[in-house]
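Protein entry
_____________
===
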Amino acid sequence: MYKIFSIILLILILPFFVYSDNVTGDFVESVGVVNKYKINVYRAANEKSKVIRIFYKGTKVVVIGETEDNWLKIKVNNVVEGYVKKDDLYFKNTLKKEAVKNSYIYNKVSLEIKSLIERFNINFSESMYFQQEGVVPQFEFVDMFFRDNVLNLELLYTAKTKFEDQKTSGIENPFENEIAGFIELLFFKMMIYKAELYRINLYKYNYDDKSGKRVLHAMFEYRFDDEQFKYIKNRKGGIWQFVRTSSPLEEMFKYYP
């Protein structure tokens, strides 16, 4: 069953592994939240079209485009595409709410990373694997900042459990490869913003003491090089030949945090 879910997950995230130099577009893929009691999802961008799904308030959906007449194009179950009215959704994160002191490209990268993390979490938490096994990996955005020509991304590595007070520490995580692919994708998103060095700091909660403080779990660094980039951008997994890590990759995600 894990193998089937793993294959499905790869199908869902594989299209995002294509690196794009186009950073001038106004639309950024985002996760929207239904803000009305009940909304219809239409096959085409008009109310006379066939209703293919009904969503209820609080449902999160991946928005992949918009039309000129106030319709949003979404993914239904991450596979089928449909349309909803623009005022049926709200967005937690938008470019307009980002700090104005940062550049448009910086803001766009930050927003795309947040949306990517949320899509990752949705795919896992709504999976059949989670329903049967009751635990899946999750990530939380903490911060992103540019300093001394280094773009730093800070994330919190956690686990979602089906039952309250369910312990995850020491439980084997079967999604090591999927998480490595996710980290790789985050690097490519970061590289839209020009820097000499890209660093991802991954934190987890320290359950060994009662304070529950966040501690550094792993660190990844990639120094940008034009020739290396030509090699890695179309080779899934190729970046790991050049990433410096705080510990062997195969040990970082062997267990849930």
